[in-house]
Structure formats: C-alpha cells, structure tokens
Amino acid sequence: MRKQIGLKIFAGLVFAFLFVPLLIIVVTSFGTNSTIQFPIQGFTLDWYGKVFENQSFVNSFLLSLQIAFWGTVLALLVGVPAAYSLARHSIFGRNWIKSFFLSPTIVPGLVVGYSLYQFIVIQLQFPLIQGLLLGHFLICLPYVIRVVGSTIEQLDGSIEEVSWTLGCTKLQAFMKVVLPNITSGIFASFMLAFINSFNNIPVSQFLSGPGVTMLPTSLMNYIEYNYDPSVSALSVILMLGTVVLMFVIEKTLGLASIS
Amino acid sequence: MSYVELKDIRVSYDHKNDILKDLNLSIEKGELVSLLGPSGCGKTTTLRVIAGLINPNDGEFLVDSQNLTKVPVHKRKFGMVFQSYALFPHLTIRENVAFGLKLRKEKKNVIDQKVKDILAITGLEELGDRYPKQLSGGQRQRVALARALVIEPKLLLLDEPLSNLDAKLRVAMRIEIKRIQSQLGITSVFVTHDQEECFSISDKVAVMNKGIIEQFDTPEEIYKNPKTEFVARFIGFENFFQLTRVEEGKYKAGDGTIFLSTRQWETDKRTGTIRPDDIDIVTGTEPNENNTVSGTVKVRTFLGKSYQYEIETPIGALLVNESDDVIYQVGDSVTLSIPAHKLIIV
Amino acid sequence: MTQRRIPYLILAPGLILLILFLVLPLISIIFPTFFDGGFTLAHYISFFMDDYNVGIFWRTIKISLIVTLVCVLLGVPTAYYISQSPKKWRGLLMSLTLFPLLTNSVVRSFAWITILGQGGVVNNTLMGLGVISEPLTLLYTEFAIIIGSVYLFLPLMIITLVGILENIETEIMEAAETLGANRLIAFVKVVLPLSVPGIIVGSILVFTGTMTAYTTPQLLGGNRNIMLATFLYQNATALGNWQGASVIALVMIVATLVVMKLFNVVAGRMDKRGEVSA
Known about the structure:
- The complex is a heterotrimer.
- Chain B has 8 helices and 20 strands.
- By secondary structure, chain B is an alpha+beta fold.
- Chain B folds into 2 domains: 226 residues, P-loop containing nucleotide triphosphate hydrolases (Rossmann fold, 3-Layer(aba) Sandwich); 108 residues, CATH 2.40.50.140.
- In chain B, the strands form 4 sheets. In chain B, strands 6-7-8-3-9-10 form a 6-stranded mixed sheet, with helices on both faces. In chain B, strands 13-12-11-14-20 form a 5-stranded antiparallel sheet, with no helix packed on it. In chain B, strands 15-19-16-17-18 form a 5-stranded antiparallel sheet, with no helix packed on it.
- In chain B, helix 2 packs parallel to helix 4, helix 3 crosses helix 4 and helix 4 packs parallel to helix 5.
- Chain C has a single domain, classed as MetI-like fold (Orthogonal Bundle), CATH 1.10.3720.10.
- Chain C contains 13 helices and 2 strands.
- Chain C is globular.
C-alpha cells in the first residue's frame, strides 16, 4: 500500500495527542514531591500504597464494582429476552419500541441521575443505593439491546425452527439453541455495559451520599481539594484495569466486536 | 383416505390477500411429492403449514387419519431440512444428529446406535466429531438430512434443500436423497423451483401458482400433458396461439388453418401450445394442409446441439428448434408442421 | 392465541422498568416546570430572558460546535489512515484508539489539569525556556474545556469513522485514480463524500456528548466557564433551585433531540442513499 508521508505524520501527531497526556500521568505517579510535578524528582511507589490506604477510594471502588456488575446483570436479564423478542417476532411498533429501549443514551446522564434522584429517592423514598443501581441499569440496557440484538439478527432463524421440528418447545429452543449461539454477544455487551457503568459519572452524581459514592465521583471529589500524585497512581491503576479488560476481550472475542 | 391430507387450507397474513387459497393435497404413504412453482407461489408456505410452523386460517391437516391441525410443531415429529441447512453451530455433527433423540429422552446406547446407523447411511461416519463450519456444503446437506431422518419421522419435509449447492453436487445429492428416501420408505414433501430437479426425484408433482395447485400428477404426465397454460409455460412450452373449437379434436386458427389434436383436451380450453422441439420445418408440404402453417425466419440463435429459429407466421411468432442438418437463413420462407399428437390444448 | 402474547410478555419487564425509572422520573421533574397555578411557559421564558442563562446556553453550543469541528478535522484523516493500514496494523491502531475511550473520563480530564495548570507541564516548559516569565492562565478557561472535550471524544469520532471507511473498497480509490484524479483529489472527491454518514454519526455523538458532558467542564472549566450540565448541578445542589434545574434538564433534552434531527436532515441532503441513524 502506497502511503502519503503527510498523512502518516498527521496520524502520528494525533496518536501522540491521545497518549502523551496519559504518559505524563504515569510518570507523575512516581514522583517523590507531595504535589504533582513534571518532570518528576526522585522515584517512589509510595503513592500507590497511599491509594489503598485511602478508605474512601477502596470503599467506592468496591461499590463501583458491585453497582456496575448488578446493573449489567439486571440489564442482561431484562434486555436479552427483549432483544430476542424484537429480533425474532413481528412486534407491533417494533422500531418505536427498539428506539425506546435505546433512549437512555439520548437523555443526558446527569438528567437521568437527577430525575431518578427527584422521583425515586425524594418522592418515593427509595434508598439511595437502589436509585444508583437503577441509574446504572439504564446505562447498561442500551448496550445489551444493541449488541445482543444484532447478534440474534445475524443468527440463522431456521436453526430455531429446526429445533422445534425436532421436538423443542419455544423455551427449550431458546435455551438449547439460541443462547449457546449468542454467548459472544452477551459477553461483549456485558463487557461494554460494565465498563461504561464503571466509568460513568453523570448518572451517579446526584445519587451519591454518605457511604454511597462511586469511584469516579470519589476521585473527582478528591481532585477538587488535593493535587498529589496519589491521584496519578489511582489513574494508573484504572488504566491498568482498562488494559486487562481489553486484553481479556481481545483474547475472547476480538476487540473488533465492541468497537 | 390418503396418508397425508390437506383439506381446504387457507393462509392469509393480512386478511386481504390469501397466500394459500383453499388448497387440497393428498399424499400416499411412501411417496415423494414435490411442490413446484415460482417464488411467491405458496409452495414454502404449504410446507410450513405441514410442518406446523404456520397455523392456517382455515382448513384441516391430517396424517394417518389423525387431525394435526392444532398440534404444535414440536409435537408433530416430522423431520425437516432447511434451505440454509440450519445446523446448530455450537454442536458437533454427532450432537446435531442426536439432538432430536435426546429430547425424546431415549436411552444413551439406543441413541448412539441410531446415530451411528444414520451416519453410515448418509456417508458421514468419519465426520461425527467435527463442527458444521468445518464441513463442505454437500456434507452439511447430509447432516441436515441425517438429523431429520434419525428421529424416524412420519413425514420428511425438504425446503429447497439443494439450492445452495453447485450444479454438479446438486445432481449427485438429489440422487442420494432419492436413494435414502426410497430405502427408508419415508413419505416426503420436497419444495423446489427447479423443474428438472423436481421431475428426476418425485413420484408426484404439484405445480403451484398464486396459492393454488394448478396440476397434481406424475412427472411424466405433467411433462407431456400440462393441464393449464401456466403449467405449460412453467415446464417449457413456449408457443401459444388462440384457436376456436370446431368439434372434438378439431380446431381452427385465426387464419382459417385447421388444427387437429389427438391429445387430451377439455371442451372449454381454447389455447394451442407446443414445445419448440416438437415443431418440424418441412419442405414439400402444400400450404393450407391441416396442422401446417407457413412463415418467415426472423431470428436464428445457435444453441449448441441445435438452432433455434423465431418464425413469423399468420398465427403469431413461433419458436422452433431444429438440428443443424439444414440451416435456414434469416428471411427464408418455411413451412411448419405442428403434429396432431404433439399439439396440446390448454 | 396465548402464543401471540408471548413476544409482548418477554418485552414487558424491560418496558415496565423503563417506564417506571426513566419516563416517570422525567415526567415528574418536567411536568411541574409547566405549571404554576395553570399551564405556563413562564419558567422557560424567564430562563431565556436572563442574559446569564443565555450566555451559558450559547457557550455550551459554541464549545460543542468547536469540539465537533476539531474532532472531524483531526478524525477524518486519522481514521482514513487507520482504515488503509494493513490488517495487522489496523487492529493495533484500533486498540490504541479504543484505550483512551475505555479509560475513565476523570482520569482523562485530570491529565489536562497536570498539563495546563499553573505549575503544569506547559507553563513549566515555557518558563524553563524563558518564553514567558509569568505562568499563563490555561486551566479553567473555555480553551481548557475545548481541548479536554476533544481529547475525550476524538477516539469516538475515529472509531465511528473507521467503521464506515473500512467498507469503502480500495478499488474505488484506484478507479478514481485511473480516471485521472491524484490521491488528494480522489480523497476529497471520493472518500470524503462516502464518509459523510460516518461524519454525521460521529458528529452527533461528539456534539451531544460535549453538550451534556459534566465531568470535563466541571474539572477544567472552573466556576467562570459553566456549561449546561454543570449549571444544572449547581442549580440543584448549591443553589437549591430544583425548578431551575428541571428547566435546564428539559432544555438539554430538547437541544439534544434538535441537534440529532438537524444533523440527520443535513445528512439526508448530503447523502442521497438514505437517512443516517444514530
């Protein structure tokens, strides 16, 4: 392939733009100075220890994991059957219903969180954590509908029909024939939903309170009053998490399946 | 009563246009019956009604005197082979074939034996542990067939099973299907739009058009004596001309020529038809004789083993296939003989 | 007949949850903004009569437009470069693009604090070189929000575009070249028009994303460069003005829908092959 040198340089600069800031964070996490400096003086791993000593980081990390996990599970439980129904049955107003299922992406996250807080927590007196879980369920659902839906649409519908002729009920056919063949889609949507829920801030912003703070929110609050390399260290840990997840996805599905 | 009976089946999706219009079909035990027709004629719909994948709006469906109209698909126990083969991608060939038997909770050694037997019959012994995507088109086809047959179905349903294969394999597979079908003596319904494939494999053929069966006969009968213009056109009759009836077996064309037909005719039919192969170009015959018409060569096409001529005549343009013994030129005047024993009135 | 209800039954849980926890909450906050004794638009009229509010509204639109434009300008050539790379390279480049996208937005915004801040990388470098004597005010400016948002959304634009550009066969470029176009002309006349659907979808994502983003303007914008999302949060928490927050919420939703519609109309004009859906 012939390649124009100008285009190559341009793309190189864009990638530099994308990665240099992250590299700077990585470097600053090793500095000995109590505020962030670049270039750094000295070398220490202390800031990584400080991250794990910070109770609010640890607690909010655990909460983030749980909320992202259960939000995704709930979205799968509700979304997989819905995606199946939308893909396979002649539903009245099918396109409208599908758009409706994808609509949480259209409503700004902060508004989703705000309205849930107002309605569920203030008016209906739900515990804050339930509101948070529901908010993250709403983040996750569109990923499930979109990814699992397209996986089912790509699956040859006659394999279900043939399983009926061989004696499967509709439920058996779904469990024995459809489900085993859409596991990659389910896994991909799980990963996407989980990552996006874990990283999301706007939805959680209103649904936070004492003891109920997600990790990104906790980090953001910390940044407002602190400027020490433990922020860099936590950032690096989160980036490592991203690398691990990407590696897992690449090895199981190939990254192409989620981009 | 026949083994399989479809009585006044009507299928409509929107309550306006009927996909099937009061369709009736009887199939004897052990027969292989084809549903032949162009796309949209209702042949696949008919098969899906039989399978139980579509519930008819009206009508009854019986097998072995049992009314199965309301019996759901998974309780009918028919084997079905789909156009896409529809093999389960996540199961090995052996597991694909055993799928239906496992659902019936048969004993493991019984399942193993039956799977082994059917893999042998279909020539798949070596491939049991492979996955569908590791097989060729023809092999997948056999697996689909084996999977449908192993459950010992009362009926075998085949939905254009050969259309995804290349031409050579298609011929081999249709012989294979016929062999296995007659070996097991299983009553079968075969859907196709390919008349050669259909004639070669079937005991009887139902030619379908717009939701009705135009003719239900043996392949020979349909080939020789199409009953309707649609059937005639579908199986290769290309010359059609209007006639008026004089008396039984005697007709008059627009230009006054008398045509005699010794073939089956019904009193209300008025269109004469004949295959291009059956018209002869003759010399030395007087014009105005019965069953002859004179004309001019308009177009000549080389077909390989013969030439095809388009000839302008007083009763319309006629297509004629002739061997290369005598080659006519465009513009030549010729006389055509339309033999009484080849002229069909539809 | 019960068979016919099954598809709807398995849709029902999702529909019910969405209605209960998305639609009803939204109605519950939006509805009161139209009522003050009787039906009224007073809250919206007074919102748009207030110069301060309108300033925030237009700043949000302006910043979103600039960010979208920059993302298109940087994204199209980069995406084209990726889509034309050999297959093994393409996977790596896509992973490199995906990585920032999957990294937390707080982390990505924080990176720019360390770069643009008073003692940040840029100021340190420039002062070290003697170019400036006093640190420049880069952080807590519109510029900081713009660069942070571009940084946030550029990967999304690139990935969306690569998806479209990959489907353009290289033969099309070659065909254009055989007809006498040089590579630049072929790019402008052939690749660019074919990538319009990708540009539109990417622009919708970037524009609405920037317009409704909370993290980046909060961290990089400071108190003087408020955008709609931060304004909503401020109204609701610091000012306790729930009514005002709800008004902003609807303004954001409507603006998002209007922008999507506008982009689709533009797409429909430019791309005769049919509507782009996002």
